[in-house]
User: Fold GRP family sugar transporter from Staphylococcus chromogenes.
Amino acid sequence: IIVGLVSGALWAFGQGNQLKSVHLIGVSKTMPISTGMQLVGTTLFSAIFLGEWSTIVQVVMGLIAMILLVVGISLTSLKAKSEGKSDNPEFKKAMGILLLSTIGYVGYVVLGDIFGVSGTDALFFQSIGMAIGGLILSMNHNT
Assistant:
């Protein structure tokens, strides 16, 4: 129960921060960077702490995939730089916010594995954690 609730709350934290970044730099810049950061974060956490890369082939292929992913994320940032936006304080602020968002999303994904709780068992309580977290975020939102 607690793992599901905390996992859902971490998702809400990640989502709330991702939406802050969208407000600062727009969805077309936020989403590729956010998605890439989530993929890198979740994969590295799972490989390092959960032992999901157990063979040399998995390690080599995984690292190649991570490099390609980081190159893709960098190209998104370069596009923003060529448009004069990566030097913008809003862009830098958005990157910090996306780092926090990524921590929330990665925590949401890996928490069940850390404590041996299946996704099916956690799902109901995750949704409650998401709803409570979303309610708290919406109460703090200024329109």
